[in-house]
Amino acid sequence: MEYVELDPNLTRVAQELGLIAQSPSLAIIHDDGRHTSEGLSKKYDAVVVDLPEPDTFQLNRFFYL
Question: DSSP labels for 4-42?
Answer without folding.
Answer: E-S-HHHHHHHHHTTSS---TT-EEE-S-HHHHHTT--S
